[in-house]
Design goal:
The complex is a heterodimer. Chain A is an all-alpha fold. Helix content of chain A is 46%, strand content 2%. Chain A contains 11 helices and 2 strands; from the N terminus they run αααααββαααααα. A two-stranded antiparallel ribbon of chain A has the order 1-2. The longest helix of chain A is centred in the N-terminal third of the chain and has 21 residues. Chain A is globular. The relative contact order of chain A is 0.12. Chain B is built from 23 helices and 8 strands. In chain B, helix 22 links the parallel strand 7 and strand 8. Chain B starts with a helix and ends with a helix. By secondary structure, chain B is α/β, with parallel strands linked by helices. In chain B, strands 3, 4, 5, 6, 7 and 8 form a 6-stranded mixed sheet that branches. A two-stranded antiparallel sheet of chain B has the order 1-2. In chain B, helix 18 packs antiparallel against helix 19. Classes of the chains: A mainly alpha, B alpha/beta. Chains A and B meet through helix 3, helix 7 and helix 11 of A and helix 5, helix 10 and helix 11 of B.
């Protein structure tokens, strides 16, 4: 009996050690601020920093492929670290099938489509340094996430059905009252405030041009610094109003219009 | 010495003095600028850099090399240099990333410094020992590499590298349906076809025709199929500045990296200077330009050293652009200066249009440029002399299989060894005279060539020997020792060694301590004066 007890104790110890080994090690990777201070970075971290620079200032660092006046961080708030504002810690979610293009998307294709639709630009090639840098930054942000499990606060919150159709006329009133002071009555933004329609904004193929998606983003984050102050219905109305405005054509559909636009721009 | 260096280091601006030539020079500069834009963009691609760096190279390297230089040579982005930059830095950092760009700038500064060192050591002369066959072989090999690289973009493959080129062809052929993008293949083929057809009608502007047709076919494709379907690669917007100042990063870690880059920096400095000096020498022989070779070495070195400070990579003289320049009548460095100015103006005007330039069209023109560099006529030309043919083929084949850096080393080693074999070869002429055998020696008599003479001596142990030295260009200590030793051995057998020398050689041999057993006979000075 005593022998058996020892055996059980040993077994428990063994199991504990195995359990201990399996627990994810808390990764203390350097913060972006620390990395920016470093005089010399290895290839991975220099790429991460470059990705961070592209996200925060796409106009300067990814100007080759950007066609409007937006930066990545315009929607991916706080350089892609804010929950419910399309955070970028999603490396574990890819590759996955997306209805948008009807095929399995790696993180690379996902990034390239962002340039094509949201940034209304040119689709970078697979091996473009910009794409690889953003992919590295996404991996960096995804540190500690469980592979294949949705991170907390992924994308934007889905608004529950309010029972009413989105009403652009009401949306216009809300926009003029709450948003126009920063985004302008013509939606053209100013300084750091992004344009929300017009030729310098995202195009009709972008995710933001879907009423549900934009409403979730507006409800959770807008007005900036005072998120969740609008009602669901108000957010949906504003979203519907934005959706009616003129913006660049969807590159997937109206090719002739797109070509004309590109040369006008 | 220092005043001479300072004189070489200051630009001469000799072209200022003949204003009637300016019009021709400016027009030649405009054509040069039009030609260099596609080359700058595609060579930047070869170097693994973003296209704007290639254009900066076309502006600033051309400007500095022409301001400081003395010839109408067009410097700027160069194929072999661009390929070598890519080979050197790609193993160290991801293509086009900020670290990669930093390393390229570091490498180019090293190249410039090495070339300046060449200038200070007056080492420009060593390039005379590089056989023209080797330069042609390197050029042909670079052309082959360009054709292989251009296939990536023409077929719409993402860059992939294989150990040997035929593996790449095999992979492409075996999986053609999945790998090849029909859209970019179509654009590439249109470009190449337009280039070869255009050459019939306009041998000067056919590259321009090719680019335009490629661009239009790209627009046609974009009009019919949307970009999410074609996934075509475009040039994109280039963030161009008029004065792209940049301070290259140099710190302790980068200096560690520079030790890894050093062999490539040597190779680039060498190949850049070799090409530039071949061009300059051709200009010097073919035209009446007042060219100073040392000054050209200095101009190349300083231009490459300053290049990173203006966000561009290293360059060298360009054969094709210099040829066009010469055909248009340019004779002074003003054409190069004008070309760099016109590039600046043209890209500012063309920038928005170039955004939608498909890379397949660029690669198509690159394909034509590369295919032109492999000149089949060259093989016929060099086939007359066996050693030259061997140098040409060995260089070409080793570039095909082992890369440009190895090929450059092979070319240098081969041409130097051919040169050494040639120079250590003595021409011996034997004449039977009543007084004994007369050996007439033509060539340089030094440690490497004595063994040949030794064999001749040992074949005639029982004869009196007379050695005629009047056609000998050089005699060194080991030759003097050899004659003393042989004379001693012959004296044992009762034979006599006579040297026929001129006055200067007489003086020299006596001062070197030739033994008294050698009999010296002085010739009239009238004969020796003809030789020296």
């Amino acid at each position: 009996m005593a022998k058996l007890n020892i055996f059980v104790v040993l077994l428990l110890l063994l199991q504990m050690s195995v359990v201990h080994a399996q627990q994810p090690q808390p990764q203390n990777q350097p913060t972006i601020e620390q990395l920016l201070q470093e005089p010399f970075l290895d290839d991975y971290y220099s790429n991460v920093v470059h990705g961070y620079e592209i996200i925060t200032n796409s106009q300067k660092h990814a100007s080759r492929y950007v066609g409007n006046a937006l930066n990545c961080t315009t929607c991916h708030l706080q350089a892609g670290t804010q929950k419910d504002a399309l955070p970028l810690n999603v490396a574990g979610m890819y590759p996955k099938w997306r209805a948008k293009n009807g095929k399995r998307n790696g993180i690379g294709l996902r990034i390239r489509e962002c340039f094509l639709y949201s940034m209304d630009g040119i689709m970078p090639p697979e091996d473009a340094p910009e794409v690889l840098a953003i992919a590295a930054y996404i991996s960096y942000l995804s540190q500690g996430q469980v592979m294949g499990v949705e991170p907390e606060g992924r994308g934007v919150p889905t608004l529950q059905d309010t029972g009413y159709d989105p009403n652009p006329a009401n949306g216009r009133l809300v926009y003029m009252e709450q948003c126009a002071s920063c985004h302008g009555e013509q939606g053209d933004g100013s300084g750091d405030v992004p344009p929300v329609w017009g030729l310098d904004s995202y195009n009709s193929g972008a995710g933001m041009n879907r009423i549900q998606e934009a409403a979730g983003f507006i409800w959770a984050n807008m007005p900036l610094g005072n998120g969740r102050s609008l009602t669901h219905q108000q957010a949906l109305d504003v979203s519907a109003y934005l959706n009616l405005q003129l913006r660049p054509a969807d590159p997937g559909q109206s090719k002739f219009l797109k070509l004309l636009e590109d040369f006008l721009n | 010495m220092i005043s001479q260096l300072l004189k070489e280091a200051t630009p001469s601006f000799a072209w200022w003095r003949n204003p009637e030539q300016w019009r021709t020079e400016l027009f030649a500069g405009l054509v040069g600028a039009v030609l260099v834009i596609p080359q700058g963009i595609t060579f930047a691609y070869l170097a693994g850099m973003q296209p704007e760096y290639g254009l900066y190279c076309a502006i600033f390297v051309t400007l500095f090399a022409s301001v400081l230089g003395t010839s109408s040579m067009m410097s700027g982005p160069n194929t072999a240099v661009a390929i070598l930059i890519g080979t050197a830095v790609l193993p160290l950092a991801g293509r086009g990333s900020p670290v990669y760009v930093d390393f390229v700038f570091l490498l180019c500064m090293m190249v410039g410094l090495i070339q300046l060192l060449f200038w200070l050591l007056r080492a420009g002369r060593i390039f005379q020992y590089i056989s023209p066959a080797a330069i042609s072989g390197i050029s042909a090999g670079a052309g082959f590499l360009i054709v292989m690289t251009s296939l990536d973009s023409i077929l719409g493959l993402s860059t992939f590298s294989t150990t040997f080129f035929y593996e790449k062809l095999y992979v492409i052929a075996s999986d053609a349906v999945d790998l090849i993008s029909p859209y970019s293949l179509g654009i590439g083929l249109c470009t190449i076809a337009a280039g070869y057809l255009g050459r019939r009608y306009s041998p000067r502007y056919f590259l321009l025709i090719a680019v335009c047709v490629g661009y239009l076919s790209g627009l046609l494709v974009a009009f019919i199929w949307p970009q999410p379907v074609t996934e075509l690669e475009y040039l994109g917007r280039m963030p161009l500045q008029w004065l792209p100042f940049n301070v290259p990063t140099v710190n302790r870690e980068y200096l560690m990296i520079s030790t890894k880059l050093f062999p490539f920096a040597m190779a680039i400095a060498f190949i850049g200077l070799a090409q530039s000096l071949v061009i300059v020498r051709e200009l010097k022989m073919g035209t009446d330009q007042d060219i100073n070779l040392d000054k050209e070495v200095y101009a190349q070195g300083l231009a490459n050293f300053l290049a990173p400070f203006f966000s561009s990579f290293a360059g060298a003289g360009s054969f094709n652009r210099t040829k066009v320049n010469q055909r248009l009548g340019a004779r002074t460095p003003l054409s190069g200066i004008a070309a760099s100015g016109f590039v600046l103006v043209l890209i500012t005007l063309l920038g928005p249009v170039l955004t939608y330039m498909p890379m397949a069209a660029m690669a198509g023109t690159l394909f034509i440029v590369g295919a032109d560099m492999i000149k089949w006529l060259d093989i016929k030309h060099y086939a007359q002399v066996r050693s030259e043919l061997i140098i040409y083929l060995a260089t070409f084949v080793s570039i095909m299989f082992f890369g440009l850096a190895t090929g450059v080393v092979a070319a240098v080693v081969l041409s130097v060894s051919v040169f050494m074999l040639r120079i250590s070869q003595l021409e011996l002429k034997l004449e039977e005279m009543p007084s004994g055998t007369v050996v007439r020696i033509k060539g340089a008599l030094f440690f490497a060539s004595i063994s040949q003479l030794t064999e001749e001596f040992h074949r005639r142990v029982d004869e009196d020997l007379t050695v005629d030295l009047q056609y000998t260009t050089h005699i060194d200590q080991s030759a003097v020792d050899f004659f003393s030793r042989e004379a001693a051995q012959m004296a044992v057998r009762g034979k006599q060694l006579v040297l026929l020398v001129n006055a200067r050689q007489l003086q020299f041999l006596n001062s070197m301590g030739l033994s008294g057993q050698v009999k010296l006979e002085s010739l009239q000075d009238s004969v020796s004066n003809e030789i020296y």
